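Blackboard transcription, Thursday session:
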Amino acid sequence: MTLDLQGDELLLAQLRELLSPSSPAVKAVESCDGRRRRRRGSKRAQDDDNTTNNGKRRSKKQKSTSSFVTSVPDFDGYRWRKYGQKQIEGAMYARSYYRCTRSAEQGCPAKRTVQRNDDGDNGGAAPKYTVVCMGEHTCTATDSLEAPVILETTAVVAPGIIGTNNRPDEDDNDDTFTSAGSTTTTGTGVESPAISDITWSSSSCGGDYVVDDYGAGLFDVHDSWASSASLQEMEDFTGPIRSPVHVPADGWTIDHFLLQLANNEPVSHFSSAC
DNA sequence: CGGATTTGACCCGC
DNA sequence: GCGGGTCAAATCCG
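(Written on the board underneath:)
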């Protein structure tokens, strides 16, 4: 994955630019550098006697975590709500903390952190992000807008999915892409997340392992299809799914996919529809 | 107006 | 004590 990858990422970047106007995430970025947010004081220091010590603190250990590296971190099929951002020691970019938007309604424990990799120069292409998922989704997708549909190509993007910033020229808060905001639905709410050359690893079963080749092979790039299929068509997922789209089985969630990858199992849900 | 984001402070494991 | 993870008020934005 050297030259081809760069080409793919170039294409990705171009697609991002094409679709970015529809992305609220980009707006967020723009607003970020456009005007500085006013400092807001936290009242914590004043009334911390009853606001912080009410036993609501987390337990730091998460049972199962899985991580992967992707240039499209906002792919997931779920909606995420950002609840924190932190500059990590030794990391060039801040780490963002997300939890499932249904954590409140349905008590979904799923969380994830997204951190842009310090991969320096990648030719202005999409930067890579390390996404660490913690906990599994217990929320149902029935009432949500997410009906994960995996495209086979890394270059294919869902409406709004890639509208995230991924701007290599941002140096500080460019990981403020919004996963939640990017999950714009089209009609039936069918979503078509795209995975771009992901590198998976899992610590859920002890010991990390990387499935770089696996992921790369799974989501092989089909430039020809990606470029021949018009973006308009791709945006219209209310209709029948086109052949290059892999439709997951019932009850599929990204977690299943994560688990399968983590267990080095064949991803049977992704039957080749080509 | 309600949901999402920002961000400083706080908590807690190591 | 340090640093990562979380909280929650303030703010933004559609």
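Lecturer's comment: DSSP finds eight helices and ten strands in chain A.
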